[in-house]
Specification:
Blueprint lengths: L2 H24 L2 H17 L1 H18 L3 H7 L3 H16 L7 E6 L5 E8 L2 E6 L4 H12 L3 E5 L5 H17 L7 E3 L6 H6 L8 E5 L2 H10 L12 E5 L5 H13 L8 E7 L3 H14 L3 E4 L1 H6 L4 E2 L2 H4 L7 E7 L2 H11 L4 E5 L3 H10 L4 E4 L18 E3 L7 E3 L5 E8 L7
């Protein structure tokens, strides 16, 4: 497409999404659930075609020299296809947040004032690699009463388009507009730039991908963005921690999965317990293939630990590498988190109730934990059912963004003829 054609195409997509959004916002819970269940059936019935189109993407990816990690994220196995269908069924089973009225109370004038949860409108989602995001995002946006415009990566274009056909079939079966979920059909990068300017059609942008993608979107978007740039997560082991508990949590937070945003990247340890917990932890990390980089005091305790640089404290490794710093006290730990953290997830391990309360109150992150692994920072683990991403912003949503995060609230007033005097 030429630039002019991309502009026209994206304007058409946006206009259709806005019209469809008004219809979806009025849809009943039953209609939305019917569409979700029909999508799930269409995906299962189209398994062979989905894998054929996915094979085209995989072959093109190999020709382009994509890494094995990227190819793995791109691959749609039988299990992953089944997981997409099951995810839609789980979303259908969730409570519908749209129309919920809370905080309804009488005022002295006799009116009742409350808040009603309503859809955001049209959500633009820009993502890379994983075709399953197409289905997850479509399902969550629909259940929350929104229309969505999905722009996946060029490496997954055939996979995303065949999944889009399954989504459209489900919408049609439920009597909902097929344009409620539109997957951008062009791989032209100009389409992203156009989407980020369409503030008359799109209400919020959600990026899913690497830091470079998210930085670009944040810099260019004229539309509010729900995002997080880094997952520089910390675990602080206090001198009043249970050592066994601390070792188990610190090990799990780093090694349960390496390449995820809620994995621990820096371990902070109180100086009075460091000699007790670091050696056994180091042994476990070595067995898991984790490279350790530490401050001077850490290196004195662990002879084979590599000296950490200033850059290590500010790096999201997404790899089997861990930075370790020995700190003087709780304040030292919180100062480090304040300086180097990314406001994603931070945890304290302590048996001291007062220190735990201070940590919860003073650490300014989207998830703050006591005596638990950072790996729990996840929509499913929080009971949200599913998530569209994690936000480290303070407005409009923070932490894992589930159905409620894809809605907003408006004030509603119930009266019986009252007039203001």
């Amino acid at each position: 497409m030429t630039i002019e054609n991309v502009q026209q195409y994206m304007q058409s997509v946006g206009s259709q999404a806005r019209r469809a959004g008004r219809q979806v916002s009025r849809a009943t819970t039953g209609a939305k659930n019917q569409a979700l269940l029909a999508m799930a059936c269409a995906i299962e019935a189209g398994r062979e075609r989905i894998q054929q189109e996915n094979a085209r993407d995989l072959e093109a990816g190999r020709q382009r020299g994509l890494s094995e990690a990227l190819l793995d994220r791109l691959t749609l196995t039988d299990a992953r296809i089944e997981s997409m269908a099951e995810g839609l069924r789980q979303i259908a089973a969730l409570a519908d947040p749209v129309g919920e009225i809370t905080d309804l109370s009488y005022r002295p004038s006799g009116i009742q004032v409350g808040r009603m949860r309503v859809p955001l409108g049209v959500i633009g989602i820009i993502y890379e690699s994983r075709p399953n995001v197409t289905v997850d995002a479509a399902g969550l946006c629909l259940k929350a009463g929104n229309a969505c415009i999905l722009r996946g990566g060029s490496e997954a274009i055939h996979s995303n388009q065949v999944l889009a056909s399954c989504i459209r079939a489900g919408l049609e079966q439920a009597g909902l507009p097929q344009t409620a979920v539109q997957v951008v059909e062009t791989t032209d990068r100009a389409a992203v730039g156009e989407l980020l300017k369409m503030d008359s059609f799109v209400d919020v942008i959600v990026p899913r991908g690497g830091k470079g993608l998210i930085e670009r979107i944040t810099a260019e978007s004229k539309i509010p963005v729900i995002k997080h740039l880094d997952g520089i997560c910390h675990v602080y082991i206090d001198d009043r921690a249970d050592p066994d508990k601390a070792i188990a949590i610190a090990y799990n937070a780093k090694t349960q999965r390496f390449g995820v945003c809620n994995a621990m990247e820096t371990l902070l340890v109180h100086k009075d317990i460091a000699a007790q917990v670091l050696p056994p932890l180091a042994n476990k990390y070595r067995e898991a293939g984790v490279e350790l980089r530490g401050c001077d005091r850490t290196c004195q305790i662990l002879a084979d630990c590599q000296p950490a640089t200033g850059e290590d404290w500010a790096t999201e490794y997404l790899a089997p590498i861990l930075a370790i710093r020995v700190v003087d006290d709780l304040d030292g730990a919180m100062d480090h988190i304040d300086r180097y953290g990314s406001a994603h997830t931070d945890a304290i391990v302590t048996e001291d109730y007062t220190r735990a309360r201070r940590f919860l109150r003073e650490v300014d992150s989207s998830s703050v934990m006591v005596n638990a692994s950072t790996r729990f920072a996840d929509g499913f683990e929080y009971g949200l059912g599913a998530e569209i991403g994690i936000s480290t912003d303070k407005l409009h949503a923070r932490g894992p963004v589930g159905l409620e995060g894809l809605t907003t609230q408006k004030f509603v007033v119930l009266g019986d003829g009252q007039i203001r005097t």
